[in-house]
Design goal:
alpha+beta, binds zinc ion, 5-stranded mixed beta barrel
Length: 443
């Protein structure tokens, strides 16, 4: 198909959008100029020509089907033919209350890309399906292009044979592996080589395409950090082993890079003293929030900062007994009116000067911070006839306090989130510190 045939439908689309007041020949000439002289994208060219002649670009009906590799941030009316690689659901808070969105990866022969569907009720997204997407838009998040399916997006299922299967991170390693430290691992790296110590490992049975498989998973560490791993073959791994792994690949779970390796990888056991001892590597490294944001998350990080806010939804909450969603007025969004289960949590914002993250403290930690059990909180709320008293107490207790928190850090469009495993309020005596500093200065 030559260029002219390929453009003809778009020429007709422009003519139609302009109500036929500009001739096909004229549009064809202008389109050729935009594409070959101004070197803009087909989409931009079409919109510009329509605008130039006083039309409305929204009247264009034929979008440009792009490949994943061609996408750049800030595109409107994006059309794609792609395979849904993964579908996940999560709840987000919006001005109109909480709503469920779907997100994951989609791909074609040229690559894979993250997507978010903001109105998933209207679109069919099933893992493995080949779909035609119209009127999506793109944004940049952390240096990566993402596809967003907003209110105008249309998704239709297409014949499976239109695209090859997409297995982004499992392409066979080719050439020498790229050496990396654990702290340098990033999502979608393939064929990496690293030396790390096994901090923990356990075997699990999983189903892959209906077939039972054993996966050996746990945590690896070197001096630069820790990473969760999955080994899809029995390499005879044991806690404490120092491994040289060549041919691993990196996927991510909610932003945290994870290392996978299988029968195509080479795994060699090294001498036990090739890395610092286990106890040293098991320490949780203190990290700056800025660095966590750049990495996309981390396993078992420690952050020190000031707790600057206790968000709504903190304190005494009630959850659906079926799905654990937080209830509003005794009602679950999915299961209707239910008898809720009481729970305690803190959703706080912690700022360390380089950035901020949301820190989520579960029931046990919240009880520790309050020095109160959940039953005492329930009684307190009953007496005050106000569930919010617990949140208010937490705000009084925590806001403006310096804290040290430790846990796994994940990331998504809403930023970084730490699920806090342990926390302490740092008792920094400011006056004492100032006095010590003065004494030192005065000698
Ligand atoms: Zn429910």
């Amino acid at each position: 198909m030559d260029m002219k045939d390929e453009l003809e439908p778009h020429v007709r689309d422009i003519v139609r959008a302009l109500g036929g007041k500009v001739s096909e020949q004229e549009v064809e000439r202008e389109l050729g100029n935009y594409l070959n002289v101004y070197r803009v994208s087909l989409d931009t060219a079409k919109r510009s020509i329509v605008k130039k002649h006083g039309g409305n670009p929204a009247d264009l009906s034929l979008g440009v089907t792009k490949t994943v590799r061609d996408l750049v941030p800030g595109e409107q009316n994006v059309n794609l033919l792609a395979r849904i690689v993964s579908v996940n659901e999560k709840e987000v808070e919006t001005e109109g209350g909480s709503k469920a969105i779907r997100y994951g990866f989609l791909g074609d022969g040229t690559g894979t890309i993250p997507y978010t569907a903001w109105n998933p009720d209207g679109v069919e997204l099933a893992k493995g399906d080949v779909v035609r997407i119209q009127n999506a838009y793109t944004k940049e998040f952390k240096g990566r292009v993402e596809v967003h399916l907003g209110a105008r997006a249309v998704v239709t299922k297409e014949d499976d044979a239109l695209l090859p299967a997409v297995e982004p991170s499992r392409a066979a390693p080719a050439g020498p592996a790229t050496a990396a430290k654990v702290g340098e691992l990033r999502e979608r790296m393939g064929n990496v080589a690293l030396t790390a110590r096994v901090l923990s490992v356990e075997a699990r049975e999983v189903k892959v395409d209906g077939e039972a498989k054993t996966v050996y998973s746990g945590v690896l560490a070197d001096e630069s950090g820790k990473v969760q791993f999955s080994a899809w073959k029995d390499f005879g791994l044991a806690e404490g082993d120092v491994l040289r792994i060549e041919g691993g690949y990196v996927k991510s779970w909610r932003g945290i890079p994870q290392l996978s390796f299988d029968e195509r990888a080479t795994v060699t056991k090294l001498a036990a003293d090739a890395l610092p001892p286990r106890e040293a590597l098991a320490q949780s490294p203190r990290m700056w929030i800025e660095d966590l944001a750049e990495r996309g998350g981390a396993v078992d990080a420690t952050v020190r900062g000031i707790l600057i806010d206790v968000k709504d939804g903190s304190g005494l909450i009630y959850r659906c007994p079926e799905c654990r969603r937080v209830l509003r007025k005794n009602t679950c969004r999915i299961h209707g009116e239910v008898q809720g289960l009481a729970d305690l949590r803190v959703k706080a914002v912690v700022d360390d000067g380089s950035g901020a993250l949301t820190a989520v403290f579960g029931k046990d930690l919240t009880e520790l911070l309050l020095e109160k059990t959940i039953d005492e909180c329930i009684a307190q709320a009953k007496e005050a006839m106000d569930q919010e008293v617990v949140r208010d107490e937490l705000a009084d207790l925590l806001i403006a306090q310096p804290v040290e928190i430790r846990g796994n850090v994940t990331s998504d469009d809403y930023g970084l989130m730490m699920i806090v495993d342990s926390a302490r309020i740092l008792k920094v005596d400011v006056q004492e510190e100032a006095r010590a500093m003065l004494e030192e200065l005065e000698g």
